[in-house]
Amino acid sequence: MLYELRIYTIYEGRMDAIQDRFKEHTFGIFTRLGMKVVNFWIDATGQNKLFYVMEFKDMAQRQRLWEQFKKDIEWIQVKRNSEENGGLIVEKIDEYFMNQAEFFRLGN
Asked: 40-49: per-residue pLDDT in tens?
């Protein structure tokens, strides 16, 4: 499996908007497209950051699904609507790709 850690830096004052967008729309679109979110976090120190990990079979699947997501008509409309009144939400996205270490088993 391939895991992708995505770290979003959110514009000041837009944290509620990104959380609402994920809760009300993005997670549903991910599910419809077969994209699996493993877990999701909000920064505990007060920084405007979100963290989430996605699971893919391999990099090819990851590329294919993200391309589908970016072109998805519902996503395009949701993004447009969520940025219409308050402006941009996400300032920066950092992506890290990981494979689980063979020596580690969950539940150690």
From this structure: 999 999 999 9
